[in-house]
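Data availability (excerpt). The following record was deposited with the supplementary files.
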Amino acid sequence: MAVAFELGHLNTVLRSKMVRWHWAQPAFALFILLSIIAYWWAAAANSEGSISFAQFMPVMFQLVMLVLLAAVALPDSIPEDGIDLAEYYLENRKYQWLLVSLYFWSIHLGYLGHVFTTSDTAFDVLLRAGPDTVFGLLFIVMIFAKRWSVIGAGFALISLSPLIWAARSLG
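Predicted structure:
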């Protein structure tokens, strides 16, 4: 459903002649699409079998966050007077990055618990959890970033995440 939302909105934006393009919102949309793909990749690798209702609730929360993110990643309609994607980004940035933060931290807090209970040293904790934690903190910073130079620097760092995902193997 999340991918369908995002691709439908992409179709709307691409077909309209009333869109003033700006790099930030398409970059955000691409990041969300890759996040959805990464989530399903991780889900496909999960071989735990059955889970309880309580164990499923965080998964359901994460799926809801992904659907909401896909729904806001690109405009769902274009007003008659057009849309400026720079303005769209600035108007929606707090909501978008809050959803990203909620999604990320709902996964990462469980991972941190696992890392703390299975690591022998503080260095091991830092090595295993440090990079992802930095990304999670960056998502929070992006909620408040107003200047395009800060937003651009944030996106430059965030663009590394697909490279990190590509280097990982699950299972």
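Summary of structural features: The beta strands are 19-20, 83-84.
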